[in-house]
Amino acid sequence: MYEWNEMVQLMIDWIDDNHTSAPSLLRMSNQLGYSPYYCTKQFHSLTGMTLRDYVWMRRISSAALELRDSNARILDVAIKYGFSSQEAFTRAFVKAFEVTPAVYQRGPRPIPLAIRVEVFSPYHYHLKERDQMVKEHLQEAEVKIERIPAHKFIGIWDTSSRNYGDFWRNGHNCDEICGTLESMSHLKLPEQLGQTAGWFYQDGQKGYLYGIPVAADYAGEIPAGMECQNIPESDYLIFFHPPFNYLKNNGEVMRIVEEKAWNFDPTSMGYEWDEETKQDYQRHFPEGYGYAVLRPVKKV
């Protein structure tokens, strides 16, 4: 039933691996074993965009990141990402981001980059494999302490959302928000993972947040629809599970970690919850870091 979700995800992987070499629909469809017609039809059905538009936006977004992070000549970047000339690249860049490549390279600012599409999730995997899958052994959540320096957090605080799913169902445009924050990834707080979610507390009410932590002295542009708040230095108890198989075990790992995080007594480690730092963070990078919930504490 979900064969095409998996096939389209393979198409997305193939595009990301080949987007500097003018990916060929025919070559890709041959590798997947389906006709170009069915590939393009199913891609549009599951992503809501044409294959051609997706390839174009991923290439122009990757080119923007290269301009942001290097001193490469604009012409060289244009040719690398398949544009026939610097003029053609400039026209495409302005169409996508309303700024020229030269102006953006001199002064990078938040722009809505095209993020990678995901159409094959743990939900589909469990439905597809529920009769054959053998559950892997998962370990208990570990606990450690980490000090995070004072910083600013740029993002959205939503009092009517309680979790990640609620947040994106509550009228927030995932592609636009994540794409804009991706363009600010070079500003992220050192040692942090970039885009970050979590929970905050306001007038006794718990809400959900999404954004990016940046240095405490950041004085740059704040994207439209987002806020910037100062977060004080604090120790954090980190409840975490090491890297795991996202498709098979994401839901169970999150349950294990969050159950321990919300029921832990910090006095057993000589701490109490820090009520002044009114937000908790999540770190979610299954293949690299794992999953973690960070809760601020202070010494008893």
Largest sheet: 9 strands, antiparallel
CATH first level of the largest domain: which class?
Alpha Beta
| Structural shape | globular
Rg (CA only): 21 Å
CATH superfamily name of the largest domain?
A: Regulatory factor, effector binding domain
**Residue windows where pLDDT falls under 50 for at least 5 positions:** 130-135
Q: Care to count the β-strands?
A: 9
Tally the structural domains. Answer: 2
Q: Specify the CATH architecture of the largest domain.
A: Alpha-Beta Barrel
Q: Which fold name is given in CATH as the topology of the largest domain?
A: Multidrug-efflux Transporter 1 Regulator Bmrr, Chain A
Structural class: alpha+beta
User: How far apart are the first and last residues' alpha carbons, in Å?
Assistant: 55 Å
Strand content: 15-25%
* Helix content percent band: 40-55%
What is the residue-averaged pLDDT?
86
Element order, helices and strands? HHHHHHHHEEHHEEEEHEEE
If helices are DSSP runs of H or I spanning 4 or more residues, what is the number of helices? Answer: 11
General description of the model:
This protein is α+β, with helices and mostly antiparallel strands and 300 residues long. It has 2 domains: 3-106, Homeodomain-like (Arc Repressor Mutant, subunit A, Orthogonal Bundle), CATH 1.10.10; 142-299, Regulatory factor, effector binding domain (Multidrug-efflux Transporter 1 Regulator Bmrr, Chain A, Alpha-Beta Barrel). 40% of the residues lie in helices and 22% in strands. Strands 1, 2, 3, 4, 5, 6, 7, 8 and 9 form a 9-stranded antiparallel sheet that branches. Helix 1 (3-18) crosses helix 3 (36-47), helix 5 packs across helix 6 (86-97) and helix 8 crosses helix 11. The chain is globular, with a radius of gyration of 21 Å. It starts with a helix and ends with a strand.
